[in-house]
Design goal:
Length: 695
Amino acid sequence: MPLSVSLSPLHPLPPNPSLSPLSLPLTPPPQPLSLTSNTQTFSLRHRPLKIQSLDAAQPYDYESKIAADFHSSNKLKIAILGFGNYGQFLARTLVRQGHTVLAHSRSDHSHVARQLGVSFFADPNDLCEEHPEVILLCSSILSTELVLKSLPLQRLKRNTLIVDVLSVKEFPKNLLLNLLPNDFDLICTHPMFGPQSARNGWNGLYFVYEKVRVGTEESRISRCEKFLNIFAKEGCKMVEMSCSDHDKYAAESQFITHTIGRVLNELKLESTPINTKGYEALLDLVENTAGDSFDLYYGLFMYINKALEMLERLDLAFEALKKQLVGRLHGAVRKQLFGNAEGARIKLESYLAAQHGTNGAAASASSSKGMRFQNVDPSIYKRAQIVKHLDDDSKLKIAIIGFGNFGQFLAKTIVRQGHTVLAYSRTDYSDVAQKLGVQYFSDADDLCEEHPEVVLLCTSILSTEKVLRSLPVQRLKRNTLFVDVLSVKEVPRNLFLQNLPPYFDILCTHPMFGPESGKNGWNSLPFVYDKVRIGSDESRVLRCDRFLDIFAQEGCEMVEMSCSEHDRHAAGSQFITHTMGRVLEILGLESTPINTKGYETLLKLVDNTAGDSFELYYGLFMYNVNAMEQLKRLDRAFESLKQQLFARLHGFHRKQLFENADESQDLQEILLLPKLSENGTLPASSSHALNNQND
């Protein structure tokens, strides 16, 4: 049977102006609910509608107050002790994050503090009575003990968190444990960066810490985490590590970094218009370490067990490198002295051997001739057609003379750009050449008969003259372009002008990068060149430009500069760079889990220079007029730094000796002084004696 349900509409009461909304009667009049069927009708009434409870109205800024309370609960009151360069550096970030920062220092930094939004206290008692939650020790290594002992700890809350930021960790850990009451919390930290190395932010930089002693109460654990979160929020790499492990990994690497930085600072290195990556690294290292006080460096020296041993190792490495150079120089002089006699002996032996072996030599001549050219799979040379949109005329046939490490490095890019590359070297590199898509020749005559448009000399500085004189240049086209890539420029320029016929074009270049520094591409790396002699024909000018375009296409910074100007800027800086790289290589530096930016710089420097041959370094020494003077200056700088350290050490030891003697003298004088009487006056006899002394 169908059942219909009807609900009468509700009619709210009209508003009464005399009543507030909350005082209105909220019980509507009862309305009937009818249930109708064919047989009977049921009439029911609603139960009265009643509001049982209603939230009280909240203040309009309730939510903002809740947010502010949550925000302030994550903020700390931090007192910085030692408001010098580093303390101010940390304060900027602490204030920016919303923490309350107080500061105390022996020097008056109130003006700087005011600018930073920091409350400065000249009296540590006043600061401690503010009850900071965290005491952040930013004093030097040398003054930390004195600062701690002078701190009125009794005015602090007994559960205050004490944090240090020193570069060594075992020393402050022991100091804090020995000098502070057991109810203070302790964290030993090392932000492994400073104002210079972190001038662009802290992101990705190491922050090492050890929770030496943190109470078990939730509030103390939370406070510790809030403090560490200051650095985590800035993107630091947070590394929890024991103080002993930190010192094992970091202390020695920091000492080496600061030592090298200070030695180079003594040399007064200057930037040039054509800095190499390695030289840029040295300049950055000087900048990063020069801003730190000598107290920091001396502290590293004093509180690192192996500091003296590391100085000695550095000294020995430098001496070993000088011996290598002098030994090589001695050998070259001997060769010049006795070379003529030796050459005559060799010629005589060759003549006698030729007389006995004429028939055998003739028989093998034809077969050996066939082996001079190493055949390669012809499909490899299709790489020259990769760049379809360029005209074939824009591609060059380039012969690389000297197909060692650097020659192969250049060949990869030249082939990739679609140029035809030939190669010749004293060593057999035919397998490497085949993989790179390069035609390899074991005979220079065969290569020259291929008429390359460009002959690219990639030999060492020392062998360039010999190679140039041995080339059968008469087999080349008379307008061939000769190019060198040596690290010095006056030497090859003069060699070319003296040994090549005047109809050859000459371009002296220096790609200021190598396989290591250019492994991620050549973009923005300097390429220096001097058009020493280029024919006026349009084809020869165009060929020169096409060759230079190889490097321009890769994004190199193209710098046209005379050879003499290049050597004035670059030769000296390269020699210093390679010298430091080789000294550090002899030291055997190793990476650590927590490298500083400065130490990373040293490791990269070793990587960039270690791949280069000693011939390159010796060539920089031989053909740099100022090399000997630079070695002497480097030697003097290192000696000067050692003298500063040892003089400071001597002064520190004398101070200890004589302070003890002075204290003993003071004690003796105190014991000899007459005692005061009960009323606080001197006995008559003693007073009379003192008056006589004053007279």
